[in-house]
Amino acid sequence: MPRKIDQDPTGSNCPPDHVSDVAAREDTARLSRRAFIKGAGAAAAVASLIGVPAAAATSPSPESGEAAGAGVLERIGPGAREIELRINGVARQVTIEPRVTLLEALRGPLGLTGAKLVCDRGACGACTVHLDGAPVNACMMLAIDARGHEVITIEGLGTPGRMHPVQRAFVEADALQCGFCTPGMVMAVTAALAANPAPTLDEVKHAVSGNICRCGTYPHVFKAALAAAAKARSLKPTEGA
Amino acid sequence: MARRVTLKLGFAGGTRDVSVVIPDDEPTPWAWGENFAVVGIETPRLDGAVKATGAARYTYDVDLPGMLHGAILRSPYPHARVRNVDFSEARRLAGVRAAIDRGGETARFAGQEVAAVAAISADIAADALALIKVEYEPLPFVTEMEAALKPDAPRVFARDGNATDPKITSYGNVTQGFEQAAAVHEAIYTTQVQTHVSLETHGAVAQWDGDELTVWCSTQGIFGVRDDLAVFFNLPADNVRVITQYLGGGFGSKFGAGAEVMIAAQLAREANAPVKLMLPRAAEHLATGNRPSSSQHVRIGADREGKLSAIELVQHGSGGIGGGAGSSGPFKSLYRCANIRTEERDVYLNAGRSSAMRAPGWPQGCFALELAIDELARKFKIDRLEFRRRNNSNPVRAMEYDLGARAFDWDAKARAAKSRGPLRRGVGVAAAGWHGIGASGPQAQAIAYRDGRVTIRIGTQDLGTGTRTILAMVAAEELGLPLGRVAAEIGDTRYAFSLPSGGSMTAPSTTPAVRQAAAHLKDKLMRIAAPMLGVDASALEARDGFIRARDQPAKAVKFADVCRRFAGDSIIAEGEHVPNYEGFSGEQAGCQFAEVEVDIETGIVRVCEVVAVHDAGLIVDPLTARSQVNGGVIMGVGFALFENRRLDPQIGLMMNPTMDDYKLPGALDVPDIRVLFVEVANGVTNTGVLGLGEVVHVATAGAIACAVADAIGAPVRSLPMTPDRVLAALGKV
């Protein structure tokens, strides 16, 4: 008999009520002045590394002690120097030139090859890692800027023998084909579910809209994300009920 | 040596008994209505966990002690003679270990390889490239087809003209066919150059040990890479070992050893150290292949009953400095028509070389033919699906049209009144075809170990389709074992030979070899089990982890207990894919339905829904099969709406060699995709498995184009259907 293979929950791509536009407007409304200024502070921290007084730096790192005092310039490079990064909960010393990106540091001296370099310009999400819990493109960030932050990579989520529930959901839903985008996809979904444990399909699509999969495996990614969210909710006692 | 077996073959639309002659040692082919224990059950891929945890090691992840990093300098000119390459400054840079040029070869496109270096870090290699001094003599160039066809156009190669002689195929007589036509439609359809954009770029890690070369390579064909390297370096093939454990996409662009693979091995030899050379993204767009463009002049006519009386295609297309731009496949096979004529020419341009890309020629041909069919059907005022049914060439597709129309609700959607607002809905349907029946050649080993585990070894590679998984499933089915007891090892030329993974050949070519190897292993185990059970080996079967007497289920021994009787550690059996039999059908039919929403104020097209109906012979793993269909459809959305390699004709450079300016389909562009499989017991091999990768990509752009024309009341005859083209079709710009 002809077999109808069960439908993937892509949902219509042409929602009659334009849910996505509504969600985007809500996002804009949530971006408060306070959050904006906080974001600007992070930008100043980056600026400090190229010769602006480091007073504005939000998180001076211990190993830059000789230069990171208030109002003192921190000069780094051009040669290599040792820095400390917190990767997957462990402090790691690594000697790198300041031009080295976080992704290059992870994949090279730190030996963590799960995150991939694909577009090299923040357009595809294959290098996504978590920086203090938020998804970032590791190809767009210098390793020295990750000092003082908690970096979690795909290897820090789980291992083949002990997978994170999102990783397991990816395998069960076959949310991967060649697998090259998969570490980035998993990191994007994990961060999205941490921020929003009960996402709609549309919210899942937006959460991975920065991740390109050339095999076109998106429908199963959506399915995996929704399944992982549902499973997490079913395991968690309802609050205040 | 051979025996005759009668097989029940066909599909739900009708089966028949077919008699085939098969070799004695070949297992009886799986036929209609088999009672499977493993095959046909949705199974998560076996390498899912290593991929989802980042543990899978791709070529890009290989790291060897003392490994250097290679980088390639590319021509900044679309056409230039390379007069001199001066490495003196580059070699003086600390950390540079090797430098080679390409022997002064003339660069015929911007991005062609000119020189290369290897250094102790990727950054130093990049710095060294900037220190290489190349003396170029720029030459006249041409990057657009219509300009290249002019008599005074610059010559891409030293030959007369930039176009090949026409390749003509003709059945019947189209002149007579058009005379019989009650209506004729004629128009020109064009398609763009599409690049593969495999996420893992092309590249390799090369390591020499004396005159033995080991290469980790991101390739769809390890044996092809091995042979190319052996010829290039004048080595016996056995001295070259190629390994591809995991592969980050290929889509047809990764056959054979490309320039970057040869260069990696040359640098490694010169530096006397292993060299890793993976291309940067821009080079991937420029120099590793593409789907050629097309300009297709289509003329089709039908008689008073709406039956096609003539189909004519006169086309030219360009794969840059490469060929293979023909698109006639769909014109010659999707419809029944007595008079067909196709004429195809390749046009050379100063642009990167074409390569195979997912159903070469078919998506572009299907787009032109199917939109033309819609335009003709409208002249007859016949429902467009009905017009296709009347002219359909394939009984499986006839059933697929019915199933798809019901799932899609074609009748209601096609007749629905159009909105008068700015958002216009439309529907379309297009036919797909392919021939993923595989070929003989692959060999396989099946190994049982004393502890009861089984390993399959075969030198194929997994593009991401789930090859490892389906091979283990086929072996587990044959051996009556749970899947957890069977592993598949692939991706190494030290294993038995297999074909490149292209042409939708992998599943249909490898599963019969693996099944035969497993059957031979089973025979050996039964010969051990027979005296244990006091039953003749021929009366035994393997099921549910036991070997037992077929007619006395109580006489059974565990598979693992048989393995414990091995004299040594393991028993090995071999199998091969014998030439395909004459089965039920070697053709592979499909069709896809699409619904779109077009904003007639902005020209933006969204694909709402796609129903994809396909024949893949026997579906081994419906879960991974569905992934492939989703992927084919989504890549089709990109081809239809977004993707376009843009060259600036004034300077001959690619303007969008990135992953943002070259727009790819993302999560928000994905339609609601429904997949329907029509299983066909085709009996062409012992498994009857067909390849799926290409047929599922053929019809999508055509179906979307038909839907767009339906939505806005005017055809958009050029891909990609970008907003400017949609607005132009509406007469707004």
General description of the model:
The complex is a heterodimer of chains A (241) and B (733). Chain A is α+β, with helices and mostly antiparallel strands and 241 residues long. Chain A folds into 3 domains: 29-75, no CATH class; 81-155, Ubiquitin-like (UB roll); 158-235, [2Fe-2S]-binding domain (DNA polymerase, domain 1). In chain A, 35% of the residues lie in helices and 11% in strands. Chain A is built from 8 helices and 6 strands. Chain A has a 5-stranded mixed β-sheet. Chain B is an alpha+beta fold and 733 residues long. Chain B folds into 5 domains: 1-35 and 394-437 and 581-733, 2-Layer Sandwich (Aldehyde Oxidoreductase, domain 4), CATH 3.30.365; 66-139, Aldehyde Oxidoreductase, domain 3 (Alpha-Beta Complex), CATH 3.90.1170.50; 145-195 and 291-393, Aldehyde oxidase/xanthine dehydrogenase, molybdopterin binding domain (Aldehyde Oxidoreductase, domain 4, 2-Layer Sandwich); 199-288, Aldehyde oxidase/xanthine dehydrogenase, molybdopterin binding domain (Aldehyde Oxidoreductase, domain 4), CATH 3.30.365; 439-579, Aldehyde oxidase/xanthine dehydrogenase, molybdopterin binding domain (Aldehyde Oxidoreductase, domain 4, 2-Layer Sandwich), CATH 3.30.365.10. Chain B has 20 helices and 28 strands. Chain B has a 7-stranded mixed β-sheet, sandwiched between helices. Chain B has a 5-stranded mixed β-sheet with strand order 8-16-15-14-9, with helices on both faces. The radius of gyration of chain B is 28 Å and the shape is globular. Chain B starts with a strand and ends with a helix. Chains A and B meet through strand 1, helix 4, helix 5, helix 6 and helix 8 of A and helix 1, helix 12, strand 26, helix 17 and strand 27 of B. Strand 1 (3-4) of chain A pairs antiparallel with strand 27 (672-677) of chain B.
